[in-house]
Amino acid sequence: KLIVKGMGKGPDAITFVKDRLGHDIRYSLDSSKLKRQLAWQPEYGFEQGLKLTIAWCVGNRKWLLDKWRHIRYLYK
User: Fold this and answer.
1) Beta-carbon neighbour count of residue 57 at 10 Å?
2) If you write DSSP's letter for every residue of 4-71 in order, what string do you get?
3) Is 1 helix (H, G, I), strand (E, B) or coil?
4) CA-to-CA distance for 76 and 74, rounded, in angstroms?
5) Is 21:66 a contact under the CB 8 Å cutoff?
6) CA neighbours within 13 Å on the CB side: how many for 53?
7) pTM exceeds 0.90
8) Is 76 helix (H, G, I), strand (E, B) or coil?
9) 67 or 26: which carries more pLDDT confidence?
């Protein structure tokens, strides 16, 4: 929902699809080991990082589409 909102779209832009076999119910990332062993800290909070990512994707749409087409070609 945050991505859709960040793209300036409404909730009607979301299309739900049927889960595929083996699809994880939940994804969970844990950066505590990075923080503990390397004294790493994220440069941005989640929402700010998401906004920056969306802005980058919008600004680099052609590059992303070219990469996506190349990857699709490799896996045909």
Assistant:
1) 14
2) HHHTT--GGG----PPPTT--S------HHHHHHH----SS-HHHHHHHHHHHHHHTHHHHHHHHHHH
3) coil
4) 6
5) no
6) 10
7) no
8) coil
9) 67
